[in-house]
Structure formats: structure tokens, C-alpha cells
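Design a sequence for this backbone.
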């Protein structure tokens, strides 16, 4: 399986230098990360929202080593919110944040991440939108869920992400569904040990369906993060059985993957949100996109060969 190898490479400085230096890399990265600045991304946001799609925006960057970098990450999101307010797009565009980018891994990181993310959540609420806390590797999740619970006291629309491949996720889903939370369910894109996570695709798919059923039958707002046609069809069936209306759940897919499916679901009346990342520190995000789906890796390798 190439996925674990690619995920290991995502932490390698040597591979980062090698891949970043490849002439073809920018062309392929642009498929998944369509800009480096807010100004770059504004035309993309306008185009997607004009087509009836919604967005969640991610300023890429996770390898934070100083409190000053964490503050800069906070300020990057506040700048994004200012632009969304100017565009009057608060109702259609939310934000996704990784708490590692806000200093979670630094000394005193839990308190630091909470202090940095709170102003972003407050500013988002002020323009009529919200924030979803992305899940990272399993060692960070207790902190993430605690921050999520704290933020929801004042901002109940704050969402979080759970990962189907982790053994703990069914219990997390029951707790979150009972509390009425917004929850994005994904398969998972980190290299996790067999002690905490399913390793085989068929096991992960089964877990995804089990967790999705919990969310659909619960009190919260499920967000289905998947490009898998079979899982999308199952989600629609589970939503119907649970008596959910079309505005009581949504689909989420990555920018650059299955764009026609984005439009098809939106045309059918579904809420369809496109996870759109931008920024200069793209390497970790890009490598996980390659690891998640063999077709993404094949696309990258074909491009390298054709440009070689």
C-alpha cells in the first residue's frame, strides 16, 4: 500500500525539498490548492458560489514551531474573514482550521490554540458564518474535542471533524450527535498505528457507514466528507430513512476532485460544500491528498513523466 509510504514522506524534509523542486509540482499542486494569497483565491470563491456551491476555506500550514507563527496563522484567518465580509459571502463560506497551526503542539499548546482560535470563531460568527476544527493525528484529538466543547458554549455552530478509521470514533460520534453538533465525517488521512485505527480499506468503509448512521439518526448536523460514489449513495439513503430534509445535512468534497459531482449534487438540491485550501505552506496538505486516493498519485506521476 502506497498510502502509508506517502504519509511518511509528508514528514520528510528531504522529500519536501525534492518534490518542491520538481518543475511539474506547481502545475499539479494548483489542481488542489488554487492560490497562495487571499487575493488569489477570491475569483475561485466567487466562481464556486455563483455555481450554487458553498465552501469551507483552509489556510494551509501545520508545522508551527513558535508562538509568533501561531499568531500569524490566526491573523491570516482574520484577514480571510475581512475579505468574506467585503464580498458578503458569510452565508456561503465557512472556515476549516487545524489547531496545530494555532500552536497546539507547542508548550502550553492547548491553552495557546484555544486563545488563538477563539478570535477567529468570534469574527466568523460576526459575519454570519462559522468554523470547523479539523481532526489531525490521534494524539491531538482529546485537546481538539475539549477546545470544540469550550467554543460551543458561546458559538454552538462551531463544528469538528471525526475520522472513520479510528476505533474511538463511534463513541465520539454518539457523544457529538447527542449534543447536536455539526460534524464532518471523513475516512482519515494520517498514518495511524494498528493499535488505534483500522488499516484495511474495507474495514474503514464499514466503519464509515456505521458512524454515518449514528450521525444521521442523531440530533446534530452531519457533513459527509467523501468522494466515494457508493458512500454518497448510502448517505442519501440513510438521510431519507432518518427523515432528514435536504438542508439538514451536507456533502463536502475537496477542490480539484470530482468537480462534476459537486455540480450534480448541488443541482439536485443538496448542500454541497467544497473544501478549498490556499497558502504557501502546501506540502503536508498536498501529500495527504496523494495518499488518500491512488488516482491522485497517478495524476501526479503521469504529469512528472510527461514533463520529464
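Sequence:
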Amino acid at each position: 500500500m502506497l498510502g502509508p509510504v506517502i504519509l511518511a514522506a509528508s514528514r520528510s524534509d528531504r522529500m519536501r525539498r525534492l518534490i518542491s523542486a520538481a518543475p511539474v509540482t506547481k502545475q499539479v499542486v494548483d489542481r488542489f490548492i488554487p492560490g497562495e494569497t487571499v487575493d488569489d483565491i477570491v475569483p475561485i470563491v466567487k466562481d464556486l458560489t455563483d455555481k450554487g456551491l458553498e465552501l469551507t476555506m483552509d489556510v494551509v500550514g501545520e508545522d508551527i514551531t513558535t508562538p509568533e507563527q501561531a499568531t500569524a496563522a490566526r491573523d491570516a484567518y482574520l484577514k480571510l474573514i475581512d475579505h468574506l465580509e467585503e464580498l458578503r459571502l458569510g452565508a456561503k463560506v465557512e472556515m476549516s482550521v487545524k489547531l496545530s497551526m494555532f500552536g497546539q503542539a507547542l508548550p502550553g499548546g492547548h491553552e495557546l490554540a484555544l486563545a488563538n482560535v477563539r478570535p477567529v470563531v468570534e469574527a466568523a460568527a460576526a459575519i454570519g458564518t462559522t468554523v470547523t476544527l479539523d481532526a489531525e493525528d490521534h494524539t491531538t484529538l482529546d485537546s481538539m474535542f475539549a477546545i470544540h466543547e469550550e467554543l460551543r458554549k458561546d458559538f454552538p455552530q462551531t463544528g469538528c471533524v471525526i475520522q472513520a478509521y479510528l476505533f474511538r470514533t463511534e463513541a465520539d460520534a454518539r457523544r457529538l450527535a447527542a449534543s447536536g453538533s455539526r460534524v464532518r465525517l471523513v475516512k482519515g488521512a494520517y498514518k495511524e498505528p494498528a493499535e488505534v485505527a483500522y488499516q484495511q480499506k474495507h474495514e474503514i468503509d464499514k466503519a464509515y457507514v456505521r458512524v454515518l448512521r449514528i450521525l444521521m439518526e442523531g440530533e446534530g448536523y452531519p457533513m459527509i466528507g467523501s468522494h466515494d460514489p457508493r458512500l454518497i449513495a448510502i448517505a442519501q439513503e440513510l438521510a431519507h430513512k432518518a427523515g432528514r430534509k435536504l438542508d439538514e445535512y451536507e456533502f463536502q468534497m475537496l477542490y480539484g476532485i470530482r468537480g462534476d459531482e459537486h455540480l450534480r449534487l448541488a443541482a439536485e438540491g443538496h448542500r454541497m460544500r467544497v473544501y478549498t485550501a490556499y497558502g504557501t505552506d502546501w506540502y503536508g496538505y498536498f501529500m495527504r491528498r496523494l495518499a488518500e486516493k491512488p488516482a491522485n498519485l497517478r495524476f501526479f506521476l503521469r504529469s512528472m513523466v510527461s514533463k520529464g
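The longest strand covers residues 272-278.
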